[in-house]
Amino acid sequence: MLFGKSWYGTGDVGLLLLRIGIGASMMIFHGYGKITAGPERWHSLGAQMQNLGISFAPTFWGFMAAASEFFGSLLIVMGLFFRPATALLAITMLVAATRHLNLPEGEPGAGWRGASHALELLAVYVALFLIGPGRYAIGVRWKRDDGIDPWEKNAAPSSEGAADADPS
Q: Does any domain span residue 13?
């Protein structure tokens, strides 16, 4: 069935595909160029924090933006430290949107049209933060210590010794 019940329960696969698509795209097309550009580029990126009233340590803030776009995206793909990574990327997109909204009218990328991509990604990262990484994530696999296999559908906690217990 194309649209029937057989597709229910595939949300974790959808989250995996979304994590790979969004994460790899951000990492390759946005983060890599920024993280490898060096301190001069980081300084100009971090200077955008002035739009939020933060004018100290622009090189640090620029590095944090570049690191969140590259390493945060890598973490999203893997599903490791997922919520901190999506939170950092959401903040980075908020700063990017304010940059576009504060550009003088007539400059390329100014206004709502220029900010739209950052606002769209902001919505995606906030939604991913709220939803979580899904079942197919390294972080999910590592964090469970209650006997439940997060990759096994409808798994129940293991009870040690239950198999050896006398049923009578």
A: no
163 phi and psi, to 5 degrees? Answer: -70, -30
Q: In a 10 Å sphere around its CB, with 0-12 CB exposed, 13-18 middle and 19+ buried, how is residue 137 labelled? A: buried
User: For residue 149, is it within any domain?
Assistant: no
Residue 111 lies inside a defined structural domain of this protein = yes
Q: Residue 44 carries which side chain, given as an amino acid letter?
A: S
Number of domains comprising the chain: 1
DSSP secondary structure code for residue 5 in this structure: G
Summarised one tens digit per residue, pLDDT across range 100-124 is: 999 999 888 889 999 999 999 999 9
Whole-angstrom CA distances from 34 to 27, 65, 84, 118 are 10, 8, 20, 16
**Residue 106 DSSP one-character state:** T
Contact 103, 56 (CB under 8 A): no
CA 67 centroid distance within chain? 12
Give pLDDT tens digits for 30-82: 999 999 999 999 999 999 999 899 999 999 999 999 999 999 999 999 999 99
Measured CA to CA, the distance from residue 126 to residue 149 in angstroms comes to: 27
